[in-house]
Amino acid sequence: MTREFSAGNYRFIPSVFQYSAGAAADDGYEIERVRFDRLVPLADGFALAANYIQAQGRPLTAFCACELRSPAAFSEEGFRAFNLHYVKTLSEWGIFDGSTNPVARSNVCPEIDPPAEPSFYAFSFTRPTTSKAPSFVIAGGAEAREGSGSYVERTVRYRDLSPEGLREKVRFTTTSQMENRMAAFGFGWKHTTGVQAYSVHDFHHALVDELVRRGALRSGLTWHFARPPVVDLEYEMDCRRVMREVVI
Asked: Is the pLDDT of residue 111 over 90?
């Protein structure tokens, strides 16, 4: 279920052309997460990330994950058009080969004070370490099943915003997205150092049974008042184990 991206010193979970489902550092390397103090437009964010990574003596292929913010949720066609634009830089960096993309990603849409254009919130890259502690980043996942078919067909409890509908969306995302992806690397909630959720809906009623009892909130929860990137998706999560995090 995982593949090696030796040029970046990490392995990844293959997914769709625009991103992988997660990245984990190889032995002898760790993932560093860099968050911008303010949102940075996509092109500028790539340039700043390149400067930062190279200043650490690392190749651009060490870029392994990013967290983006977009102005509003896309239609399926609009989302594909955005992704085709996004992967151009990864191709130039020698990361995306035209079909397989090892970079994990989240891309959500702030409900209040959104950016005027797609922007960077954070990025991650690999660097050498003497530590034996593993590190990984799991890509953002929402309540849509993997596979072919439209989002309408694949979305759990499509357009159902009832308390039970939201609970099932949270349950699916927690188990079928986050837990399955971590398991592919041999990890679980007990390894995480950070968990983020993205929704504009009140999902408090689902926290205890669907997250706390499963051990998902051992390091707390960061809730972003934002929507997933595709219209009619309502809840998204990502998680990570990263020992080194900085804000620039």
From this structure: yes
Q: State how far the Cα of 106 lies from the Cα of 23, in Å rounded to an integer.
A: 12
**Paired sense of beta strands 226-227 and 244-247, if any:** unpaired
Q: For all residues of the chain together, what is the average pLDDT?
A: 96
Q: Which residues contact 78 (CB under 8 A, 6 or more apart)?
A: none
Question: Which neighbouring-strand residues pair with 68?
Answer: 107, 120
Query: CB under 8 Å to 153, separation ≥6 — which residues?
Result: none
What pTM did the predictor assign?
Answer: 0.95
Q: Map out the domains of the chain with their CATH numbers.
A: 3-247 (3.30.1330.40)
pLDDT, one tens digit per residue, over 143-162 is 999 888 888 899 999 999 99
